[in-house]
Design the sequence.
């Protein structure tokens, strides 16, 4: 009788151990599964992009199908301009609302801002595109770089707000109190002491936001629209890298596909570099805090 | 923003009423519009993505929070972050040229020969379609779900696991206890991932096949809400067409709004508890 129960518990233990090993290895396998597409996408883009990228690609205008050469110079510059407009529009708003939420965190209004930014960060970017189409493109009666920039700016706001808020919260209260005790007014404390202390982290966050919108395609499709020339007016349609990649990728021409891969490589490269910079900066930040 | 879209979709709401949601017709030429096929495409592709991504993400989260040594942990987290930062257009591009041919030539014929008796896997494997879109979405939402689940798991106090070990539990049994406690947070992470999948535009547009139809087979091309907007908006002809597209956008907005608020509430509830501790 006693022996019997012992046996049962022994076999039970073996079973439990087997399940243990099985489940743990499943976890490791799933981690490996996740790595595979990452490396695949990354290296595929790198090899396909590197083989078709050259100086022409970076410096010349797009050419019609069949002609050799040509590049995406206008799209690269256009992307920069649109992102620049977006930053001018999105960063100040995000920064200010982040400061407000962090420094005046107990008010009812700041809770509302917090909720709204949370919701805004979950809105699909294409919806923001429609919204900007409604308020900018329709009244102006044409697609423009402004519209694209505003769309990107709106997408940046929640990220910048959130990061600013979190970075400001890391600044010790004693610092604020010390400054106030010296008779410095509140806005000066915020601006000169708190903001300056947190500036490294905030800049990181802004970089992160920029790298996120750099790849946004959906909202640009019907705001800045894209073209194949140099555009010297912010008031007219402007090419951008992601939209150009999209148009080339769904085209039937082999040559355009190669161009699109080169563009994709440039895009991934930018995002990758920004991520690494951010990583290095934040690592220093954290080790200081510890 | 909501008001603006509400106003712009007025014409289509007047013309079609609630029938808009339930009508499967979408014919710009005849000016008859209904969103059912797009809603179907969005829902099904997102569900496929969740079914694939959820187990993998939980596995990663466990691996990162419980199993991995520190060096692997930091470098792996970094990799996952980069995966999350790659623009969706790149995923879509990769989907067209690498995943779709692979699906057409090996994976779909394999599914067909194994599970061919199911209506889900019948029809000609053409590469692009619901299943391919679902897989791309799964790759895209895995980083989000696993990153948040990892944070949630980390918020579960260590003492609980130690108590489980002390009672003679195996490692997996201890983790299972932690998972049970973290379940609302993980659910929140999942729902957040779902929100992202529903709103994802470019990658889906490029691989879903863009045909407005409802078929039982997952191999068939379909259409999603976000991609119909992306494809037709800039060249929509006629006031009613644009207005209908905006109404599709409004539906999409409402859906993602509900999904996201729900997810935030769940995640707040978990992290708040851990703050108190």
Sequence:
């Amino acid at each position: 009788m006693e022996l019997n129960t012992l046996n049962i518990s022994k076999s039970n233990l073996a079973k439990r151990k087997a399940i243990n090993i099985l489940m743990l290895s499943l976890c490791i396998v799933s981690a490996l599964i996740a790595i595979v597409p990452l490396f695949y996408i990354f290296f595929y883009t790198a090899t396909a992009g590197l083989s078709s990228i050259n100086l022409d690609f970076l410096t010349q205008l797009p050419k019609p199908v069949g002609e050799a050469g040509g590049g995406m110079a206008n799209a690269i510059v256009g992307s920069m301009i649109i992102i620049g407009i977006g930053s001018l529009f999105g960063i100040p708003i995000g920064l200010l609302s982040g400061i407000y939420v962090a420094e005046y965190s107990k008010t009812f209004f700041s809770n509302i801002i917090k909720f709204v930014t949370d919701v805004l960060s979950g809105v699909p970017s294409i919806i923001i595109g429609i919204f900007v189409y409604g308020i900018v493109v329709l009244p102006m009666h044409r697609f423009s770089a402004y519209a694209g920039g505003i769309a990107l700016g709106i997408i940046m706001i929640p990220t910048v707000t959130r990061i600013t808020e979190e970075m400001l919260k890391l600044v010790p209260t004693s610092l604020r109190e010390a400054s106030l005790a010296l008779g410095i007014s509140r806005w000066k404390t915020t601006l000169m002491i708190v903001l300056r202390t947190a500036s490294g982290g905030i800049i990181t966050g802004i970089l992160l936001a920029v790298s996120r919108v750099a790849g946004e395609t959906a909202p640009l499709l019907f705001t800045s629209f894209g073209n194949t020339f140099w555009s010297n007016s912010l008031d007219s349609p402007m090419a951008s890298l992601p939209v150009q990649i999209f148009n080339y990728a769904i085209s039937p021409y082999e040559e355009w596909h190669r161009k699109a891969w080169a563009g994709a490589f440039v895009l991934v490269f930018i995002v990758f570099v920004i991520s690494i910079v951010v990583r290095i900066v934040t690592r220093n930040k954290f080790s200081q805090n510890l | 923003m909501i008001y603006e879209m509400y106003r712009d979709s007025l014409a289509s709401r007047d013309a079609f009423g609630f029938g808009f949601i339930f009508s499967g017709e979408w014919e710009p030429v005849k000016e008859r519009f209904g969103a059912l096929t797009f809603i179907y495409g969005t829902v099904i592709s997102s569900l496929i993505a969740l079914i694939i991504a959820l187990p993998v993400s939980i596995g990663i989260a466990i691996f990162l929070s419980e199993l991995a040594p520190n060096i692997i942990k930091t470098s792996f987290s970094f990799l996952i972050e980069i995966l999350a930062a790659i623009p969706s257009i790149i995923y879509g591009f990769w989907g067209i040229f690498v995943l779709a041919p692979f699906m057409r030539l090996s994976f779909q014929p394999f599914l067909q020969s194994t599970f061919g008796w199911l209506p889900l896997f019948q029809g000609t494997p053409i590469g692009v379609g619901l299943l391919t879109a679902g897989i791309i979405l799964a790759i895209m939402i895995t980083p989000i779900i696993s990153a948040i689940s990892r944070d949630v798991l980390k918020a579960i106090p260590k003492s609980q696991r130690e108590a489980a070990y002390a009672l003679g539990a195996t490692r997996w049994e201890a983790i299972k206890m932690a998972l049970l406690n973290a379940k609302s947070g993980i659910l929140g992470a999942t729902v957040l991932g779902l929100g992202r999948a529903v709103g994802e535009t470019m990658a889906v547009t490029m691989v879903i096949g863009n045909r407005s139809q409802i078929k039982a087979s997952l191999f068939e091309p379909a259409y999603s809400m976000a991609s119909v907007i992306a494809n037709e908006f800039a060249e929509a002809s006629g006031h009613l067409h644009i207005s209908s597209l905006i109404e599709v956008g409004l539906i999409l907005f409402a859906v993602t709004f509900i999904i996201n608020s729900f997810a935030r509430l769940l995640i707040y509830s978990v992290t708040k508890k851990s703050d108190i501790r």
In short: The longest strand of chain B covers residues 26-27. Chain B touches chain A through 70 residues (CB under 8 Å).
